[in-house]
Design a protein that fits this description.
The complex is a heterotetramer. Chain A is an alpha/beta fold. Chain A is built from eleven helices and 19 strands. Chain A is globular. Chain B is an alpha+beta fold. Chain B has five helices and eleven strands; from the N terminus they run αββαβββαββαβββαβ. The complex binds flavin-adenine dinucleotide (FAD), nicotinamide-adenine-dinucleotide, flavin mononucleotide and zinc ion. Flavin mononucleotide (FMN) sits at the interface of chains A and C.
């Protein structure tokens, strides 16, 4: 049944008795054309675009837990495309554009809300970095504007732009088309549409082995039995190394815990997204009223979705400095996700030395925004057995050749 | 050519002056800056006795402990690293003597790199606990113990001088201002007082001299105790 | 008038009155009251409106579990939204108001949502608001306004917060009977013990019961334990302290509310204190929370937890109503019913789902004239803003229709949920206990024991015993042996024995009966669970997120088990198969201020590092910039001068007379040891073993991938001793880098590194008159012959023993003077005085940048970005071809680093010499009309150079080294700047000044 | 918040340390290493779920590097050993 106000009205008097399942719970078949490992946003988007753009529907998405329960279900939902390097900018911009029509595309309101994202600068070096990024964005056709502290204050009156704080706001860069989307809705909407195309989304099905014969994949072993396929796309985020090792590969990623938290719900106090790298906080307010706050990563390899309190403390110290009125609000819940970070902080969307085995990982702390775009290019890569122009540069090979896409930039200014 | 100088500690500009006695006895935290203490680091595989012969203080072999003697304190900083703290102006003699006695070891004068904040008072343990993750309870720490750690956001070398308890905090000079403010702020609700600040001695170029045998007395601490902590418990096994 | 307060009973001080307001109305209570008990004593039940449907809501519980009674406390900057009335201690002058209603609590326009509730079931927003495309943001505005509960303060927080670390052998969480016994046991063994309880006084549920322990009233017994604990020196008893998070390796976080219970301004102490406790063993004696029952209309004010009614009666002497009906599935509600009756509430009926409840309690209830309706359930609740009656029907399908009972209070008990939050957070798996129909802690994941009701032991005697045992064991595990304290002799109803519970989750009802809520705070009904199930949001996690069960400020303390039980029944599965959602910090919401502590205020957030000359800079009007943690003078604008003008003046002065720069922030590392030279050969791209004592050399450091990461001048002090300098930001990174290689890779090298960054003050003196000036202050021969470029020497400078380096980052004749830091200011002043006649000018970092750019010297981190090699910088001359190995060598011969079309450092001269190309702008071959415009590189440094009399820039441009002389375009927002690629040296290309 | 057992200073809060990542990575001979081998050394990591041998640096303490073996799922520390030692057999 189509999701619409009309159907909602029709269902109201019937106690909403007729809404169908959003997706099925199919039993795994013996074989598929394509197996996707991981029903996060990226895996689901891959399956969806495989069906929609490439007509491949004999696809299974295997998920060890519940769909959307990985980082897709635990991120701070920032969507933007104002990246520095051309390769990144083009990929994320493609994704942002898909986001702009995703609700209509999926017939599922993913609540994409272009409420604007501001990146703050707290010193001369930050300003230089933002300007450099701004020039690049402009030439790449990505909206971007530098904003003064006063303008930022007008947009977000709760910010403290006093010069006397430790890291005063010297300015910022804003992307107006950027914003938030509802994390769960993105996963659910993609799952529902993929399912409609006939894709089998199989939850509680952990991939425990990858069958490789003569250098090419033939299928997977799972907690629900063996499943055959000649093409396997792995999108396991934090577990990328674990899955890759099943195919005998090592990856240039390490898994760390990244934390986020929400306050108790309050009436609207901030209507945009504000990020600060120097002070390591980002803030937005969800439609339900919680302030959604992102913290930094814990400094050691971890496969637990629980981080240290020190990271949160430091983040909130900065938050109180920048937004003094939050001091008396209360943190309701804090959680962590396992993020897979590549040395250049850029993703890997690539073929691998094992034929028929494709990997999509390394999104680290920032891949939610890429969900549809990543699925779109990965679907292309799997369907055509070669990368799309947009993800060519994000190959595994770049680590050997040295052509990294270093989104860290230079760390701190040094002189 | 300059006639005279004001040698400046990193906290000189605060114009610290001692509060009166009443105030210090009522305060929960009493702080003072110990200026210009001589500080020399030693690196290498060094027989502790050789330092004893050279300076009159032995090097502690046990991690995170301090040996004192001849008005010097030798702090363990690492398995091949020590910090020797002495009275103001002793650094030249110390480095000279050490370099002579221990050829091949690294002797570095770091006097100016840090200053020392001395803290005591009935709440000193509580206030240090507000920013320092070390367990300073008498069962775990004690007189004659030292440790490197952090206080607030500053790295520190902490030395418990006596059981009163009294702590010397050696802090990097560029962060002294920060740490002083941090301590003042942390202690504010409970009362903080400043204690006699040792006056900066006038600069004089130390005449080249032989190792004097004993260093000028250096004892601003009220009740000095023998070298090592009496209760240094066995190290706990790592949990879980 | 507290007309609902009994004249005796409870632990409140009736001799004193506390005045407070609720929604502006002046009321009174007593010390010992919570806001909730005081409101109830005044007969106020309606305290708020629900989140989604704006339904009238009252007080449900008596402690942290409260889902409904959230109020706004205080005024102005001291406002606290979403405070639980049940845990807010009353004080004189307390100001509270209701939330989420407009214009008033009694008449709330938002209640229209309730009327339209059919349209807004769980997840409705996913199904609509999609048309027209882009209109979501329009709808969203209204949704946002309707959502949210309380209102955030509008002013900064006037309070301060404190944090501290603590360490103990045994941490006991909860000071109910189990916790107190545990604490006693552990303390007597000599262990270091911390006991934390979130309530104002220890005692836990004992405070709300009628028993005696060893002849002492149950409400007083905790005082005696408290006295004993407080008499021991290594025991800390923390009240008003909630343990909120359980982290790795037994690190627990607790929040102490230090002054929240006091009128504003009464205490100088911090508002709250965050405890970060490392415990060797933890005893979790956190008690249990009563579970509501789910039935239509169960959210009306007057429907309360049975144990809460009991606690209000026993602890606060408050009657929660006049006529009560009890609804239960277990024995414990009988105890509550009896106590309620004893307190003067007319308990008319006990509705029990069990077919044949029996036992002592049943008889006792009976003996008090309470009616019994076994095998029945409440089918509906009447009333608009308060319960007026209930409909009761038999659970037997064939039974006749519902029976009506008048009442103003419904006491419900669906059993008990042990407070397993912390255990679960620590990684301990929970096990389903069928007889209790709830989760209890399984095998402990860390050094931890659960005791008392938290472990599923609900009898008092058993709780006391299990606490004592846990405490003794905990101490023993940390090396302290002691005897378990005796279990006190208990008289009265101890509640020992089985609960005799028969699970009752919900009964399918028609919408006509009204909504049955399992999650009161987020307004989630059984109909929502049914919808979620129908749509296949049946994983417990999907269910949670789709319906928002347990996602409110109470984090599902009352709704959790009920919600998943209903889900399980609709899924037709057992509850343990459905599982539970993840327990996460924080157990109760934690004030952000408390998590931030004192390090929020600007001075303490991050250390400001200051050089020895800082006060001079301040006094002389320096405009500072942050470089890492350092404050460095950017320039020193004079009166009437702009920042840019100051920079121009300073830049010019350094080349015409004398400039002086505070260079103290540069990293300095003393490197000694037999292998020091060999070590530097491996660290730097160029050779250092050939450097002569008394000389310096510039070096470049690469990571092992070949990318430049730091640079600086290193001097050979003695055969086996060097002084390395690093960039300001790189100082500690480089030192750690050196240590890492020494300790982990080249363990055979004998080298020792010591930071001397802050030991030395460093002053750069540059300009044609610099030699004359410095010579005035030292006897050392500074002539070009005796002291050539890149030499250094020990020297007395103005009477201070220091060092002079003949180095220059400005490209001028220059000297860097190092003196012990405490003389830095003195030397600086002296130079300023002596240099006055030469027109000495202090210059800041920006002039330094311009000067070095005029010479084409790079700044690591500005003209490099982590993707730049020495070759890219045109510095192949510094990459040794003789050495067998150095860090970065192999990285430089990878396919990409060998490519010829890499971005390379060049100079750029704008055609219009007055135009300063913006830094960060990109170079384009032929700017296309519309994006994407191809980019070939970017401008890394760009300035107006007063010494060149024009603008200059450095840029990293693709294949730049081959393109000298080529014209390029730099497309800007408002037009295109044309420029020519040149060699990156703009001034004194031969270096005559440098060496002169 | 882990308690890291520094072989010298004893158990200290993890915030005093820097984690240096995977241990026992051998730096190949730059003269003979292929591009792939060099990339492997620079970037490729085991990143195991479970037992991990890793290097830690007591940055705010004795400033020594050492090895620990830690479970990356539950953070149990299974072994502590010198920076010059090879991984203990027992701990996997
Ligand atoms: C706290 C936090 C905040 C963040 N904030 C932002 C943000 O603001 N903006 C942004 O753009 N990004 C953000 N991110 C990053 C973003 O969440 C991720 O990059 C993105 O969601 C990754 O999506 P995914 O589909 O690749 O991974 P996931 O959603 O993690 O999906 C991977 C799935 O693979 C499954 N899986 C793994 N191994 C196996 C196996 N062996 N068999 C079967 N299934 C398996 C997992 O269970 C999981 O469901 C944040 C991340 C975190 C943790
Ligand atoms: N008859 C029944 O049905 C029934 C059911 C349950 C409990 N009980 C009674 O309850 C008592 C249980 O004793 P107990 O000691 O196990 O529990 P308790 O409820 O008496 O005490 C628990 C204490 O822990 C505190 N607490 C909980 N979580 C905390 C946290 N995170 N931080 C700080 N403090 C926290 C609570 O405020 C409370 O004071 C017994 O008297 C028992 O008879 C009876
Ligand atoms: C954007 C966003 C908003 C959230 N809002 C809430 C909330 O209002 N209430 C809540 O309890 N949890 C909220 N959460 C957290 C989830 O409950 C949950 O903790 C998170 O998805 C991680 O899953 P886990 O805790 O089950 O591991 C939110 C999470 C995200 C990503
Ligand atoms: Zn150590």
């Amino acid at each position: 049944m189509k999701y619409s106000l009309w159907n909602l009205l029709r269902q109201a008097p019937r106690g909403h008795r007729d809404w169908p399942q959003a997706w099925r719970n199919p039993e795994p078949k013996e074989s598929y054309d394509v197996i996707i490992i991981g029903a996060g946003g990226h895996g689901l988007a891959t399956a969806y675009y495989l069906a929609k753009e490439h007509g491949i529907t004999r696809t299974a998405v295997l998920e060890k837990g519940w769909l959307g329960g990985g980082n897709t279900g635990r991120n701070t939902t920032i969507v933007r495309s104002n990246y520095l390097w051309d390769e990144s900018a083009h990929l994320y911009e493609h994704s942002l554009r898909l986001f702009e029509t995703l609700s209509q595309d999926l017939n599922f309101n993913v609540m994409f809300s272009p409420r604007g994202v501001i990146n703050l600068a707290h010193n001369e070096h930050d300003l230089k970095e933002l300007r450099r990024r701004g020039h690049a964005c402009r030439l790449n056709g990505i909206d971007y504007e530098m904003v003064t502290p006063r303008e930022i204050k007008e947009i977000a009156p709760i910010i403290n732009i006093s010069r006397s704080i430790r890291y005063p706001v010297l300015g910022g860069a804003m992307q107006r088309r950027a914003g938030n989307a509802r994390h769960d809705a993105v996963a659910w909407g993609l799952a529902r549409r993929a399912d409609e195309f006939g894709v089998d989304i199989i939850q509680n099905c952990e991939v425990t082995g990858i069958d490789v014969r003569d250098g090419r994949v033939t299928g997977v072993q799972t907690t629900r039995g063996a499943i055959r396929a000649n093409r396997i796309g792995a999108v396991p985020a934090g577990h990328a190394s674990v899955v890759a090792s099943m195919a005998g590969l090592r990856l240039p990623v390490e898994s760390h815990t990244l934390q986020a938290m929400v306050t108790e719900p309050v009436k609207p106090v901030i209507d945009t997204v504000i990020m600060s790298n120097t002070v390591h906080v980002y803030i937005s307010q969800s439609d339900k009223g919680e302030l959604v706050l992102g913290a930094g990563i814990d400094g050691y390899n971890s496969y637990s979705q629980k981080g240290g309190i020190n990271v949160i403390e430091h983040q909130l110290e900065g938050l109180c400095e920048l937004y003094p009125i939050v001091s008396r609000l209360k943190i309701m819940r804090a959680w962590g996700g396992i993020v897979d970070i590549a040395p250049d902080a850029s993703p890997i969307i690539s073929k691998t030395p094992v034929e028929g085995f494709y990997i999509n990982c390394g999104w680290g702390t920032g891949g939610f925004k890429a969900t549809p775009g990543s699925g779109w290019v990965f679907a292309h890569t799997i369907a055509q057995d070669r990368p799309h122009r947009l993800n060519e540069a994000f190959s595994l090979g770049r680590f050997e050749s040295g052509l990294l896409i270093d989104e860290h930039g230079a760390a701190a200014v040094a002189h | 050519m300059a006639e005279h100088w004001q040698r400046q500690s990193p906290l000189t500009h605060l114009g610290l002056s001692a509060h009166d006695k009443n105030e210090t006895s009522a305060a929960s935290l009493v702080m003072a800056e110990l200026r210009f203490l001589a500080k020399v680091t030693l690196r290498g595989r060094i027989p502790g006795e050789s330092v004893r012969t050279a300076l009159g203080v032995s090097l502690p072999g046990e991690p995170n402990t301090v040996m004192t003697g001849n008005n010097l304190s030798a702090l363990w900083l690492g398995p091949d690293e020590w910090l020797i703290v002495g009275p103001p102006d002793a650094e030249r003699a110390m480095t000279g003597q050490l370099a002579k006695a221990l050829p091949g070891t690294a002797v570095v004068d770091v006097t100016e790199g840090r200053t020392t904040i001395r803290t005591r008072g009935p709440m000193v343990l509580d206030i240090l606990a507000m920013g320092c993750p070390l367990d300073l309870h008498p069962r775990a720490f004690g007189p004659g113990r030292c440790a490197q750690s952090t206080l607030g956001r500053s790295p520190i070398i902490l030395h418990q001088v006596d059981g009163a308890p009294l702590f010397d905090i050696h802090v990097e000079r560029s962060q002294a201002d920060y740490l002083w403010t941090w301590l003042e702020t942390a202690g504010r609700p409970y009362g903080v007082a400043v204690e006699a600040v040792t006056a900066p001695p006038a600069w004089r170029r130390p005449a080249p001299r032989r190792y004097p045998g004993a260093f000028p007395p250096f004892a601003p601490s009220p009740s000095r105790q023998p070298t090592r902590g009496a209760t240094v418990p066995a190290r706990s096994v790592p949990s879980s | 008038m507290q007309s609902w307060r009994n004249s005796t009973g409870g632990i409140i001080d009736r001799s004193r009155h506390l005045s407070f307001t609720f929604d502006g109305k002046r009321l009174s209570g007593h010390p010992g009251d919570t806001l909730a008990s005081a409101l109830l004593a005044n007969g106020i039940h309606l305290v708020g409106r629900s989140f989604k449907y704006h339904r009238p809501r009252g007080i449900v519980g008596s402690g942290v579990e409260e889902p409904n009674a959230l109020v706004r406390l205080g005024k102005g900057g001291s406002v606290e939204p979403n405070a639980r009335a049940t845990t807010t201690e009353l004080f004189d002058g307390l100001v509270a108001s209701s939330q989420n209603r407009w214009p008033s609590l009694a008449f709330d326009v938002g209640a229209l949502n309730s009327v339209a509730s059919g349209l807004i079931p769980a997840g409705f927003y996913y199904k609509t608001f999609m048309w027209p495309a882009k209109a979501w943001t329009f709808y969203e505005r209204f949704i946002r306004r309707a959502a949210g509960l309380g209102q955030a303060p509008e002013e900064p927080d006037p309070d301060v917060y404190e944090k501290r670390y603590a360490h103990c052998d045994v941490l006991v969480v909860g000071a109910g009977p189990a916790g107190l016994q545990a604490a006693r046991a552990a303390a007597r063994s000599g262990a270091r013990v911390i006991v934390a309880d979130e309530q104002a006084v220890p005692g836990g549920s004992l405070l709300g019961e009628h028993v005696t322990l060893d002849g002492v009233a149950g409400q007083e017994w905790p005082d005696s334990v408290r006295a004993e604990l407080e008499s021991m020196s290594d025991v800390t008893l923390l009240t008003r302290t909630t343990v909120v998070g359980y982290y790795n390796h037994n690190f627990l976080v607790a929040v102490e509310r230090v002054t929240d219970h006091l009128p504003a301004g009464e205490s100088a102490l911090p508002r709250q204190r965050l405890w970060k406790i490392r415990a060797r063993h933890v005893v979790l004696a956190t008690g249990a929370i009563e579970r509501p029952l789910v039935f239509p209309g169960n959210d009306l004010p007057g429907v309360m937890l049975a144990s809460a009614v009991r606690a209000f009666a026993n602890r606060w002497g408050v009657r929660c109503g006049a006529r009560a009906v009890v609804f239960t599935n277990n024995d414990s509600a009988y105890r509550s019913a009896i106590d309620a009756a004893d307190c003067g509430i007319h308990v008319t009926t006990i509705v029990d789902c069990r077919a044949a409840p029996r036992g002592r309690l049943v008889e006792e209830a009976h003996s008090r004239g309470i009616d019994m309706m076994a095998g029945s359930a409440i089918a509906g609740v009447e009333g608009r803003k308060r319960v007026r009656g209930v409909a009761i029907s038999s659970l037997d399908e064939s039974a006749p229709a519902a029976l009506r009972k008048e009442c103003d209070l419904v006491m419900m008990s669906g059993g008990w949920n042990p407070t397993v939050h912390l255990a679960s957070q620590s990684g301990t798996r929970l096990a389903w206990d069928e007889s209790l129909a709830t989760f209890v802690p399984g095998d402990a994941a860390t050094h931890q024991t659960s005791a008392g009701a938290a472990a599923g032991t609900f009898g008092l005697v058993e709780c006391l015993r299990s606490g004592a045992l846990a405490g003794t064991e905990a101490a023993a595990r940390t090396g302290f042996d002691g005897e378990a304290p005796a279990v006190p002799e208990v008289e009265g109803d101890t509640g020992d024995g089985a609960l005799d519970l028969e699970a009752f989750w919900h009964r399918p009802a028609s919408p006509r009966d009204g909504k049955a809520f399992h999650d009161l705070q987020n307004d989630v009904t059984t109909a929502d669970v049914a919808l979620a199930t129908r749509e296949n949001y049946v994983s417990v996690e999907h269910f949670k997120r789709y319906t928002t069960t347990g996602m409110g400020t109470d984090q599902g303390k009352t709704s959790g088990v009920n919600g998943l039980a209903i889900l399980a029944s609709l899924r037709g599965e057992a509850i343990p198969a459905v599982g539970h959602t993840t327990y996460r910090p924080f157990y109760t919401p934690v004030t952000i201020g408390a998590l931030a502590g004192i390090e929020t205020n600007g001075d303490l957030y991050d250390p400001v590092r200051k050089t020895p000359m800082h006060t001079w800079h301040e006094k002389n009007g320096a405009h500072f910039e942050d470089v890492g943690q350092w404050k460095r003078p950017y320039c020193y604008p004079r009166a009437g001068e702009t920042v840019d003008e100051a920079v121009q003046r300073e830049t010019l002065a350094a080349r015409t007379s004398i400039g002086i720069l505070d260079a103290s922030t540069l990293g300095k590392i003393d490197i000694q040891g037999a292998d020091a030279a060999e070590f530097l050969d491996r660290i730097y791209t160029n050779m250092f073993s050939t450097l002569k004592v008394g000389r310096c050399r510039y070096g470049l450091m690469c990571r092992d991938d070949g990318m430049v990461f730091d640079d600086g001048v290193t001097a050979r002090i003695a055969e086996n001793r060097f002084l390395m300098s690093t960039t300001t930001g790189g100082a500690s990174t480089v030192l750690n880098w050196l240590e890492e290689w020494l300790q982990t890779e080249w363990t055979d090298l004998e080298v020792y590194c010591t930071s001397v960054t802050t030991h030395w003050a460093a002053i750069a003196v540059a300009g044609p008159k610099s030699r004359a000036l410095v010579s005035e202050l030292t006897r050392a021969d500074l002539s070009a012959e005796a002291f050539p470029f890149m030499a250094w020497r020990d020297a007395d400078i103005a009477g201070i023993a220091g060092r002079i380096f003949r180095i220059s980052f400005s490209g001028e004749t220059g000297f860097e003077l190092h003196v012990p830091a405490s003389y830095g200011l003195a030397l600086w002043r002296n130079l300023m005085t002596a240099g006055e006649k030469y027109g000495i000018t202090a210059y800041g970092t920006e002039a330094m940048h311009v000067l070095r750019a005029e010479k084409g010297f790079i700044i690591a981190g500005q003209d490099t970005d982590g993707t730049t090699t020495p070759h890219d910088l045109g510095m192949s001359w510094i990459v040794s071809k003789k050495k067998k190995d150095f860090l970065g060598m192999r990285g430089l011969s990878r396919p990409d680093t060998l490519r010829e079309d890499r971005k390379q450092l060049v100079g750029l001269l704008a055609d219009d010499s007055a135009v300063v190309i913006p830094e960060g702008a990109h170079v384009s071959p032929q700017p296309a009309a519309r994006p994407p415009v191809p980019m070939e590189g970017w401008v890394s440094s760009s300035y107006m150079s007063p010494n060149c009399g024009r603008s200059i820039a450095l840029a990293l441009v693709r294949r730049g080294h081959d393109r000298i002389g080529e014209e390029v375009a730099i497309p800007l927002e408002n037009g295109i700047v044309r420029a020519r690629i040149v060699k990156p040296v703009f001034f004194d290309e031969e270096g005559a000044r440098l060496r002169g | 918040m882990m308690l890291i057992p520094c072989p010298w200073c004893g158990d200290r809060l993890d915030a005093e340390f820097t984690c240096g990542g995977e241990a026992h990575i051998v730096r190949p001979d730059p003269a003979t290493a292929s591009d792939a081998e060099w990339a492997d050394y620079l970037f490729m990591r085991k990143n195991p779920k479970g037992v991990h041998h890793e290097r830690w640096f007591h940055a705010h303490g004795c400033r020594r590097w050492f090895h620990i073996t830690r479970d990356t799922v539950n953070h149990r520390i299974l072994a502590v050993y010198a920076i010059t030692d090879s991984a203990p057999e027992a701990a996997g």
